[in-house]
Design goal:
The protein has 398 residues and is an alpha+beta fold. It is built from 15 helices and twelve strands. The protein has helices at residues 3-22, 36-46, 71-86, 121-135, 146-149, 159-162, 165-169, 203-207, 213-217, 220-224, 241-255, 259-266, 297-311, 316-324, 389-396, and strands at residues 52-54, 90-97, 100-106, 115-118, 277-279, 293-296, 329-330, 341-344, 349-352, 358-362, 366-371, 376-382. The longest helix has 20 residues, at 3-22. The protein is globular.
Length: 398
């Protein structure tokens, strides 16, 4: 191969990488991928900074018996089983109706005791913790500026300091123009991954102790981020990990504990979890709220059932959750995320073109879908996306 051919091959491979990255959340495609060992709990074992461990609940939630005399449930279970058998990348699939398990399946390296690692579903969990802090009076108002709680966000012309908590929840700070999947472009890069190669995202260097959440939001990494403050706060939806990390620090300062610890205290302890869960943190103990939560599949199901219960409950948190999971801002579709959704709530995806309900999404084919109208839930983890997933949930509703 000549020099020009080699150069063209390199350029083409780089372009192909970015094309694949850009299509990530638009459909459940096969372009994004993770190491399968990491998907089923391996992140906690290879991270240099040990994650925060959330204790199992004092009182176990038992699943009710699903109504399998229901023709729709029987059909959905068959469709799910067939889809999982054909999928080369899915690792866990769970369907729940009215609090009962309609289908539960594992594949590949996944086992019953695997802890399924979520990427951006962590953003949706962070929203739950913000709601609890609001209803507990620790966050006075969603319209408070984030810099009231985190003064470090105010200097350096940082849009996040000029944003309200609500605008951060809506991913509308305009703090940076996303390069790939919520990540900014950084002069000099983020740091290295476990192979000693340049990391293409914030999480690996943070998990390995090279950088902190503070470095990303106002420190050295922030100073080197390109295309900062591209839009006025509250004006434009731009999927960006930084907005959720800023919420992590708001929670930390408002509650006096890490976002993971506050989530454990106010939410995880009430879902009836059977086993412990883990959430990635930086070397200072601050939570990687944009990603990094892992738990067993049935405990993910228990969490989803609890969310459904809270969604229909009276009072402050029920109202917050109803607002969080309805359209708050139109999806401008400027970044590489959520192209199947027309709108975004408070760290939840809304108005899915292909299936009902509100959704938490994660890199490489992770989905938490909840339909409050008929109390149906679907949860899927994978190390790479496969086409046709949304049809399981959609056909279940036909």
């Amino acid at each position: 191969m000549g020099f020009l051919d080699m150069k063209f091959s390199y350029i083409f491979s780089v372009l192909l990488f970015f094309i694949n990255i850009t299509s990530a959340h638009s459909q459940d495609t096969k372009n994004y991928f993770m190491n399968e060992r990491l998907t089923v709990g391996g992140f906690a074992r290879v991270s240099k900074i040990k994650p925060y461990v959330l204790s199992n609940s004092n009182s176990l939630r038992q699943f009710v018996d699903a109504d399998m005399n229901n023709n729709g449930n029987r059909k959905a279970a068959k469709i799910a089983k067939r889809w999982l058998e054909k999928s080369p990348h899915a690792n866990g699939l769970l369907l729940i109706d009215q609090g009962g398990i309609v289908f539960e399946g594992y594949k590949g390296l996944a086992k019953l005791n695997s802890e399924f690692y979520s990427q951006s579903i962590g953003k949706s969990l962070t929203s739950l913790a913000v709601g609890k802090a609001l209803c507990g009076g620790l966050i006075k108002s969603l319209d408070d500026l984030a810099s009231i709680y985190v003064p470090e966000l105010a200097p350096n012309n940082n849009n996040q300091g000029k944003s309200t908590v609500r605008q951060l929840l809506m991913m509308s700070s305009g703090n940076w123009r996303t390069a790939i999947s919520g990540q900014p472009k950084v002069t000099g890069g983020f740091g290295l991954n476990t192979q000693g190669k340049p990391a293409i995202a914030l999480t690996w260097p943070t998990r390995l102790g090279e950088i902190t959440v503070g470095d990303i939001l106002w420190g050295d990494v922030w100073k080197r981020i390109e295309n900062k403050n591209f839009s006025e706060p509250g004006k434009t939806f731009m999927y960006a990990a930084g907005d959720t990390l800023a919420l992590s620090m708001v929670l930390e300062r408002a509650t006096g504990m890490s976002a993971a610890a506050y989530f454990e205290k106010t939410i995880w302890q009430y879902i009836g979890a059977e086993n412990v869960a883990r959430w990635a943190v930086d070397r200072n103990g601050s939570t990687l709220a944009n990603a990094g939560f892992q738990a067993r599949l049935k405990d993910w199901g228990r969490l989803a059932i609890w969310i459904l219960e809270q969604h229909s409950s009276e009072g402050c948190f029920g109202e917050y959750l109803r607002q969080a999971t309805k359209p708050q801002i139109k999806n401008a579709k400027l970044g590489a995320a959520g192209h199947s959704f027309d709108s975004y709530g408070y760290q939840w995806w809304t108005e899915n073109k292909h299936a009902p309900g509100f959704w938490g999404l994660g890199f490489a084919g992770q989905f938490l879908g909840i339909n409050p109208d008929n109390k149906k839930i679907i949860i899927k983890f994978a190390h790479q996306g496969d086409p046709g997933f949304y049809s399981i949930f959609r056909r279940w509703h036909e």
